[in-house]
């Protein structure tokens, strides 16, 4: 079996017994039951992921920034020159980007992985050169990747996740760098959700109205070329999804057994074909990174719209992988909201960020860590001598415990 199939086979369901223990512990901690809201649900899910309660603290954490270039850049979809991808890689390595500042703030390690930067890069501290190709092909003219390239990039993502976990990291964060990658993200999101290009294509790094309209046309052209445009999306302005594509939300914990479907309603029997047709090498690697983290039963905190698009690929390959995923933040890109809804994930922070690099995931990391720390450190009513809701003195069996 190939590493991809092996990894998917290793991804199991959440451990129900550990989740029951976490729910019980949460109910006995010195706070009103349910008062930590989403963080309580997250702590229960992470107990299920680890298979024990309390689960290990999600630290140390590592962000992997997958960098690659995009042939579709030639269509004029980004205001920035392609060279900025490699220049920003150099900036990451020098510690000068926003991702470096946010990583330093939370003590996360930064690793940059070249999976497809057009410029030749040399190995350097903090950089893994695992280049599959010097960028993708222009998806409006040909499949962005060959099937073999897509699989190689996926395997690289799986391997990087495995290496970071082997080095002792207990929380993985996704990062990306690739000029024009919001166009490829929009195409993946439209293909996997069945939504029309105008609903999921945003302004990326900042484009005017005319360029935005052109970017939507580019996404539509690519999807049409590869037979991935939803039936319901064929009329511009029609924002409906096809019934099968809209489907039930897959849901992080309940995602198992709910396959994604093609825009025309048929099951996505080959998500890798969709990925190769309109994705980026960093999307492929990120999908592998998510699968690798899920197989290692380590939480994977997703950044914005690029990670979300990659998560759609991972979910189509293995719905259960979403149980390991935490949506770090809600990106300002419209396609991201559609994506998290499709995946049943709830973004932890919502700050109108539209940067990428891993910045939104890093801002969410203390929330993920705090959710677990509560299970380790907060006293129970009994141990702290605090009366519970029934008013029973501590140490005695309370009415509510008998009922
Ligand atoms: C200086 C700079 C730093 C960035 N850091 C992340 N991105 C982000 O913007 C790019 C995608 O936007 P679009 O599709 O509009 O080109 C990606 O590289 C993404 O990581 C950056 C973009 C720029 C220009
Ligand atoms: O929100 C994002 O993830 C994003 C938006 C614009 C450019 N790069 C990333």
TrEMBL record:
Catalytic activity, EC: 2.4.2.21
Annotated keywords: Cobalamin biosynthesis, Glycosyltransferase, Transferase
Record has Zinc-finger as a keyword: no
Biased segments, Low complexity type: 242-267
Pfam families in the record: DBI_PRT (PF02277)
GO biological process assignments: cobalamin biosynthetic process
Superkingdom classification of source: Bacteria
Region span, Disordered: 227-267
Keyword hit for Glycosyltransferase: yes
InterPro entries per record: Nict_dMeBzImd_PRibTrfase, Nict_dMeBzImd_PRibTrfase_bact, Nict_dMeBzImd_PRibTrfase_N, Nict_dMeBzImd_PRibTrfase_sf
Enzyme class: transferase
Pathway the protein acts in: Nucleoside biosynthesis; alpha-ribazole biosynthesis; alpha-ribazole from 5,6-dimethylbenzimidazole: step 1/2
Molecular functions (GO terms): nicotinate-nucleotide-dimethylbenzimidazole phosphoribosyltransferase activity
List of catalytic residues: 357
Reactions catalysed: 5,6-dimethylbenzimidazole + nicotinate beta-D-ribonucleotide = alpha-ribazole 5'-phosphate + nicotinate + H(+)
Family: Belongs to the CobT family.
General function of this protein: Catalyzes the synthesis of alpha-ribazole-5'-phosphate from nicotinate mononucleotide (NAMN) and 5,6-dimethylbenzimidazole (DMB).
Protein name: Nicotinate-nucleotide--dimethylbenzimidazole phosphoribosyltransferase
Lineage: Bacteria, Bacillati, Actinomycetota, Actinomycetes, Streptosporangiales
């Amino acid at each position: 079996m190939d590493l991809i199939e092996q990894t998917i086979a290793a991804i199991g369901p959440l451990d129900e017994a550990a989740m029951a223990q976490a729910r019980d512990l949460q109910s006995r901690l010195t706070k009103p039951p349910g008062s930590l809201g989403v963080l309580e649900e997250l702590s229960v899910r992470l107990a299920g992921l680890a298979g024990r309660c309390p689960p290990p603290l999600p630290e140390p954490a590592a962000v992997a920034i997958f960098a690659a270039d995009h042939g579709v850049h030639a269509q004029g979809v980004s205001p920035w020159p392609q060279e900025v991808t490699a220049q920003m890689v150099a900036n990451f390595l020098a510690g000068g980007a926003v991702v470096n500042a946010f990583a330093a703030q939370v003590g996360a390690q930064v690793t940059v992985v070249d999976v497809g930067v057009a410029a030749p890069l040399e190995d350097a501290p903090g950089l893994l050169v695992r280049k599959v190709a010097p960028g993708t092909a222009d998806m409006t003219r040909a499949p962005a990747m060959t099937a073999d390239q897509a699989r190689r990039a996926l395997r690289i993502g799986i391997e990087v996740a495995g290496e970071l976990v082997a080095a002792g990291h207990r929380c993985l964060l996704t990062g990306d760098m690739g000029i024009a990658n919001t166009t490829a993200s929009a195409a993946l999101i439209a293909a996997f959700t069945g939504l029309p290009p105008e609903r999921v294509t945003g302004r990326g790094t900042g484009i005017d109205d005319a360029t935005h309209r052109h970017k939507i046309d580019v996404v539509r052209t690519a999807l049409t070329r590869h037979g991935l445009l939803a039936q319901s999306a064929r009329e511009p302005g029609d924002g409906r999804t096809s019934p099968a594509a809209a489907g039930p939300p897959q849901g992080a914990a309940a995602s198992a057994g709910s396959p994604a479907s093609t825009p025309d309603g048929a099951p996505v029997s080959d998500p890798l074909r969709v990925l190769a047709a309109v994705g980026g090498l960093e999307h492929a690697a990120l999908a592998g990174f998510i699968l690798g983290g899920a197989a290692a039963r380590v939480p994977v905190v997703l950044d914005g719209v690029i990670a979300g698009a990659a998560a759609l690929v991972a979910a189509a390959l293995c719905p259960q992988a979403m149980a390991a995923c935490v949506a770090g933040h809600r990106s300002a890109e419209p396609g991201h909201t559609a994506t998290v809804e499709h995946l049943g994930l709830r973004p932890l922070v919502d700050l109108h960020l539209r940067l990428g690099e891993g910045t939104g995931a890093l801002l969410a990391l203390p929330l993920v860590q705090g959710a677990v720390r509560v299970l380790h450190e907060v006293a129970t009513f009994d141990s702290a001598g605090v009366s519970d809701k029934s008013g029973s003195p501590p140490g005695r069996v309370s009415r509510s415990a008998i009922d």
